[in-house]
Design a protein that fits this description.
The protein has helices at 32-43, 58-72, 92-106, 124-136, 150-159, 178-186, 206-215, 219-229, 241-248, 257-264; strands spanning 9-11, 17-19, 23-24, 48-50, 80-85, 111-116, 140-146, 166-170, 190-194, 233-234. It is an alpha/beta fold. It has a domain at 16-201 and 231-239: NADP-dependent oxidoreductase domain (TIM Barrel, Alpha-Beta Barrel), CATH 3.20.20. The strands form two sheets. An eight-stranded parallel beta sheet has the order 3-4-5-6-7-8-9-10. Strands 1-2 form a two-stranded antiparallel ribbon. Helix 6 links the parallel strand 8 (166-170) and strand 9. The protein binds NADP nicotinamide-adenine-dinucleotide phosphate. Residues 24-26, 50, 117, 146-147, 168, 194-200, 203, 218, 220, 235-240, 243, 246-247, 273 line the site of NADP nicotinamide-adenine-dinucleotide phosphate. NADP nicotinamide-adenine-dinucleotide phosphate is lined by residues 24-26, 50, 117, 146-147, 168, 194-200, 203, 218, 220, 235-240, 243, 246-247, 273. InterPro entries: AKR, AKR5G, Aldo/ket_reductase_CS, NAD(P)_OxRdtase_dom_sf, NADP_OxRdtase_dom. Belongs to the aldo/keto reductase family. The active site is at residue 55.
Amino acid sequence: MVAKNLQDTTTLHNGVKMPWFGIGVFKVEEGPELVHAVKTAIKHGYRSVDTAAIYGNEKGVGQGIREGIKEAGISREDLFVTSKVWNTDLGYESTIAAYETSLNKLGLEYLDLYLIHWPVEGKYKDAWRALETLYKEGRVKAIGVSNFQIHHLEDLMKDAEIKPMVNQVEYHPRLTQKELHSFCKEHGIQLEAWSPLMQGQLLDNEVLQEIAKKYNKSVAQVILRWDLQNGVVTIPKTTKEHRIVENASVFDFELTEEDMKRIDDLNQNHRVGPDPDNFDF
Ligand SMILES: NC(=O)c1ccc[n+]([C@@H]2O[C@H](COP(=O)([O-])OP(=O)(O)OC[C@H]3O[C@@H](n4cnc5c(N)ncnc54)[C@H](OP(=O)(O)O)[C@@H]3O)[C@@H](O)[C@H]2O)c1
């Protein structure tokens, strides 16, 4: 079923409801612009915020959340907050400590989703055990991974007690990740797109521009709608109010099967971010 509005949710395999749509804050530094972006997103109906320890902005995200929910008259429980454990903290004790640090910085009592940011060989299994402990203790609502390829997931699940609920990966019309997506679907793991707009590099694509014109929408809106119709959670980043509104205005049109296919066909297995099988950080 395709999301019907900005607050619509997908149900993760443990029953937790996660919004299909959220705001990302990668590369947004601590400061008023960050706080304003988070607050503004909440004001316009966003209910999901994606950050990570390595972004160095959890304090401001927390402030934006506190101010945003107050102004919107909603409660913490109405929001879905994600953060991620960084590579240098992967390990059983160190991951638990990293979770505490993230919570303290955010000023929150729990996260809705905590992810292993990258599949560092030899380290992600201990980190996963830590996430399982946090989950079993009821300290986090859902746990998952990011940047995991099929072989990483297979390896993790060999020893895991709990299957990841989410895999957040680079995903856009130049990187459609069909096999990974099928694998995740088979195992009940929700796929989530990072850099859904390919960091702004797809906006002048002629095919997307032609499709956008047909629906009287922007290229960004067409891409984000394509995510939703593909059953992929999406978290575009912007700090600008007009784009916060624009990106979320994707619930009043539907791409035809033919246009979905034209967008799928733009795939070139092209990444703007690091390759999960070949990174050294
Ligand atoms: N798990 C991971 O390893 C990982 C890696 C990367 C990102 N992420 C997450 O995914 C989120 C999104 O990815 P991303 O930030 O890399 O890239 P993105 O969302 O694909 O693109 C963001 C860029 O597009 C611009 N933009 C946004 N909306 C636009 C619109 N409607 N029209 C024109 N330009 C627009 C933004 O500029 P302005 O801000 O100036 O509007 C920004 O430069 C991140 O913020 C982060 O939360 C996760």
